[in-house]
Amino acid sequence: LLSCSSHGRLCAPPTFITQRNNSTSPKIKVDYDQTTGVAVMHMQNPPVNSLSLDFLTELCISLEKLEMDKGCRGLIITSNQPKVFSAGLDILEMYGKSPEHCGEFWKVVQEIWLKLYGSNMVTIAAISGSSPAGGCLLSMTCDYRIMADNPRYTIGLNETQLGIVAPFWFKETMVNTVGHRNTEVALQLGLLYKPAEALKIGLVDQLVPEDQVFTVATQTMTKWLTIPEHARQITKSMMRNPTIDKLRTNREADIQNFVSFITKESIQKSLRMYMEMLKQRKA
Ligand code: CO8
């Protein structure tokens, strides 16, 4: 079993867990077409686009650059990894790490959500594969979601299945997307929906054949960009600012909550069991 020292610093992960090398190659590829004002962000963090500290930092920097460019009006987020949009937060950033590391990690998770949920750009998620947990959150921060119609893929906030609790701003993003009742059931059971079920509850907006996800995302973007920009942006802020403001004013407390929760021995044990389950499933 995992053991913790008395001052909360956790032991190094056991050897069955692969520590991935921090590759220096870019984890995000951005194609920006200045004539259309649309940027495409390709996530390329093998094998499953898990949202590590490095990856999220790179995502933040790329987003900041695009947001500052007034000519950039639309952003499509997609994945270069086969079968997966994003596997969510990198569990290895939360397992066997010091409280300081966990705090730093959580701050970047907050930052990416704040930036994307409050973005002035039209944002579209081109969901070309599975999108559990943080991958689902990333999708829900966008204005519109187009998913590959393949029943092998799933999307949802499955945190309870890992023995962890989705924080209030994950929950509110989901409520804002699929309503209170759907969220209540989805979050308690940690449901991962197949595309058709996700469409039914409004977790995604459109299903298309796998090879058309990107084309349809581009066509949809063109439509969204015909709406007068200022009116659309103010409307978006009106819908989203109450949730954004809540996190902004509680940011430090939210970090403290996360750190004290995630470093608990029982939670670390749950994460470890979940990682073991992933390995066994693979075998
Ligand atoms: N973090 C780290 N490593 C991961 C993750 C992850 N989220 N997901 C998969 N991996 C690893 C696997 O262990 C495996 O490692 P290895 O090659 O060393 O054996 C490798 O990535 C490939 O994974 P699979 O073989 O499972 O790949 P598949 O293509 O078969 O499946 C899936 C892809 C569907 C994405 C599958 O990997 C999966 O279901 N992953 C787990 C997804 C998940 O449950 N993520 C939850 C993350 S927690 C989160 O995002 C929110 C946390 C909120 C915290 C709040 C606390 C208060």
TrEMBL record:
Pfam families: ECH_1. Keywords: Isomerase. PROSITE patterns: ENOYL_COA_HYDRATASE. Transmembrane segments: none annotated. The keyword Magnesium does not apply. CDD domains: crotonase-like. GO terms for molecular function: isomerase activity. PANTHER family: ENOYL-COA DELTA ISOMERASE 1, MITOCHONDRIAL (PTHR11941:SF45), ENOYL-COA HYDRATASE-RELATED (PTHR11941). Belongs to the enoyl-CoA hydratase/isomerase family. This is Dodecenoyl-CoA isomerase. It comes from Xenotaenia resolanae.
